[in-house]
Amino acid sequence: MTDATSLPRPSAFRRRAKSGDRRRTGQLTVGLSALLLLAVCVLAVATGPSPIPLGDLARSLLGESDALSAREAIILHDIRLPRLLLGALTGMALGVSGTMMQGLFRNPLADPSLVGVSSGAAVAAVCAIVLGGGPLSAFAAVLGNSFLPVAAFMGALATTSLLYFLATKAGRTSIATLLLAGLAVTAIGNALIGLVVFTADDQQLRDITFWTLGSLGGATWGRAMAMVPFVGIMLAAVPFVSRGLDALILGEAEAMHVGINVETLKRATILAVASACGAAVAVAGVIGFIGIVVPHLLRLVMGPSNRYLLPASAFGGAALLIGADTICRIVVAPAELPIGIITALIGAPVFMALLLRRRNAFGL
Amino acid sequence: MLQCQSISVAIGSRYLLKDVGFCARAGEFTIIVGPNGAGKSTLLKVLSGEIRPVEGHVSLNGEPISRMRPAQLAKCRAVLPQSVTLAFSLTVDEVVRLGVEAAGVKGSAQESLCEAVLDEVGLGGWGTRLYQNLSGGEQQRVQFARVLAQVPRPVANDLPRFLLLDEPTSSLDIRHQIDLLERARRHAREGGGVIAIVHDLNLAAEFADRIAVMSKGQIAAFGPPSETLDDTTISKVFGISGIVGTLPPATMPFILPQSRHAALP
User: Fold this and answer.
1) Is the CB of residue A246 less than 8 Å away from at least one CB of chain B?
2) pLDDT tens, A156-190?
3) Is the ipTM here above 0.85?
4) Do B178 and B227 belong to one domain?
């Protein structure tokens, strides 16, 4: 089926095709997003109501014990570093979850916070806070720092499965059904949270308020470390689901044709998303839009291939969240803005731009 | 050999396929024809493992496909769907690469295989273009390239590999229809097997070694073109008559579509 007469094949074009442009861009973007994350981390550690000079920070990292004052050392080790780790893990969880859900639902508008997965996790976490002191105190004692993340994981898993069941029929996911089901789930979630809040005592109320707004303010080493296994599960799933999610771009039947076990892929993806999202909600509250902004911007640069998009979303998500958190810490210092405000201000316009681009396909 | 025995598929109480037996041999080009809704695509989906029949079983080279893992199945057969809509904007290369990877090809051989199959469908050098910007026919050729990449050799480990093509020529111009069917026939001549759904009865007569004529969820006739595309079968299955002739060599049927009202005064 050669068509030499009608198809011009300039040799330069051919060479470019041979090297696979997008794969190189993909690798480059993963590298650059990792560097960006590193830079943001350094800035975040140095910046705050009480800045630490970068030079001192570097000398301290190189092993000079007297580079930082005692006060600076405490701020660094007990406040900024755990917060940084928590931010990185949460950002990775949200960025990668967004990319995975969009791949699973075959739609760039799917996002854990928009379709109610975060809300499901929040309900479970609120219940855990209130019931952890009462009927569930035995579990709370056994699980310690992991109690909240485990509860939120269960909530996220239940919601994701419910959404998939509601919105997918014969392998096709209706995004309208998905978003509307998300609205319904969020409404039920808010009602349940309201109910639980009504019965909560003062300390529980403070805990609940803190993270319905979304914040990294409660960061401790314990909380950050409790999150590691949950995000670890998701990151470990990345190499196993990336080819499957790429094949899913063609369609469910087509993915099966090229050798993907679609049912296993779906289960692994749902489990990974629920695990990471649940943990993120448990420690930082409901932080919206990271999962939609990061994959969208990255796709514009590198294309939709999940092999590079998933790792880049991890780095990009972490960088964006830490960046947003740094802004929250300094704009009204010494007070702090809830981080959800910043991510919504960045994210909602991106979401609207996406809607505009897809409005024809969407029937709006 | 890809075969199925006493297959039935039903949606509710309506049978899409009822007690169908079918077999495609290695080295042969088998073409399925029949009116809309006859169950052609359903049969192909059963053969590809996409649909599990409520009754009967399908076997590929003697092994029941229900017991094969998707990855194992993908190395033995490739499927060309009627049309594919991408959820995200992949390049031509990225689409073809999904087939290349299913074949288990690794390293630098991936790129050369990608290029080779794109050359074969006349799209050499189109690798970096976006799939969604191509015309329907070009997209169909890219998908065919992906299918070819998935089973690059018609025979592997002494076992034939199969191409399952659902209306592969539906969006193609006449030249590319012939190019594609010739390429598929070559796969069969080199020891593989090909099953294709084709609506153009003349193309079917020209390329098929055997033709399965389907009607109302069953196989009405199965055999070489000269035995299956005759007046009786065509009029019974398609409800039109008086248009079947033969071309030299005298056994090859040709079917000339005629307006039903042509004979009216």
Assistant:
1) yes
2) 888 888 888 887 776 666 667 877 888 888 888 88
3) yes
4) yes
